[in-house]
Amino acid sequence: MSAEEPSVADEVRTTVTVDTDRPWALVGLAAFWGWLLVRWTNDFLLPDGMAFPSEQSFFPAAPFSAAAESLGATAASLGLVGAPLDVLAGLLGFVAGAIPSLPALARGAWLTILLTVAGIAFGFVLAVPLSVARVYGGRGLRWLSLSYTELIRGTPLLAQLFVLYFGLPLTQIIREVPGVGVGFVPATAVWVAIIGFTLNSAAYQAEYIRSALESVDVGQLTAARSIGLSKVDGIRYVVLPQGLRYAIPGWSNELVYLIKYSSLAAFITVRELFFQAESIANDTFRYTELFVLAALFYLALVVSASLLMNLVEERTSVPGIGGKRQA
């Protein structure tokens, strides 16, 4: 290799970029995560004497409410000409109504992220052996893997959560575990939701990984066996590292799926983002404002997850093996 010719590692490093086509979106996400981290630090880490009360927002709502009333009155006096002012007054009124609910939604977002990360991480641990059994296992293992994935993918996630929470003695078993629901340890319903999301995500991830493994040339395993590796070692050291790169786009889809469908945990009393928004809306009757605000939270989480997975895909890509095609 000449001194001027880039190595494979150099090629990989030079392709790692951050999406700058949407600078305003990046600025908005930076502001969102900055506020969220400060809010979590205030609510969970700082002692009471040094922190804002957990139900008190960092921002006052009164100035926005006063501005909305003033602009609304001005718009009414101008008639049709004041329509733009009326729209601005509505936006300011939305902000004024949303500010008091931000602390509760921040706590709900913490549980939403916890459910998503735990579900996809633990699901991956189950998905790898399921997919390997489906592709390389014997008839019995293939049948068991196929039966599990089809059962889970063929039934609604909400029904699975209900069976785990109401139909099985899982709640009583978890409740007897020392420390559950104490301090930072999640309550019983959260653990049931994590188990439900893990079992559900494992089935979908197994299918993504199965298709990725089948995309690897069959000669790769044959070559691994020819140099003395066992079948298991060939799969572990040769096939999986290549196949998992092909599965990253599927993981991106699964991550987005789990972020949105984590809202189903509200139906088994988990106080995640949707549960918090619905509870506040039921108390204040401001359903439109609260659900729009919750949707903005979910949108920020989904866009953040998509950008993260794009970065992971570029970081792990190897020329000729998975990853994005370079122009």
Automatic annotation (TrEMBL):
Its main location: membrane. One of its GO terms (biological process) is amino acid transport. InterPro entries: AA_ABC_transptr_permease_3TM (IPR010065), ArtM/GltK/GlnP/TcyL/YhdX-like (IPR043429), MetI-like (IPR000515), MetI-like_sf (IPR035906). Keywords: Amino-acid transport, Cell membrane, Membrane, Transmembrane, Transmembrane helix, Transport. One of its GO terms (molecular function) is transmembrane transporter activity. Gene3D superfamilies: MetI-like. It holds the Pfam family BPD_transp_1. PROSITE patterns: ABC_TM1. The chain crosses the membrane at residues 88-106, 112-136, 157-174, 180-200, 290-309. It is found in: Cell membrane. It is a multi-pass membrane protein. Residues 109-309 form the ABC transmembrane type-1 domain. GO terms for cellular component: ATP-binding cassette (ABC) transporter complex. Belongs to the binding-protein-dependent transport system permease family. This is Amino acid ABC transporter permease. It comes from Haloarcula rubra.
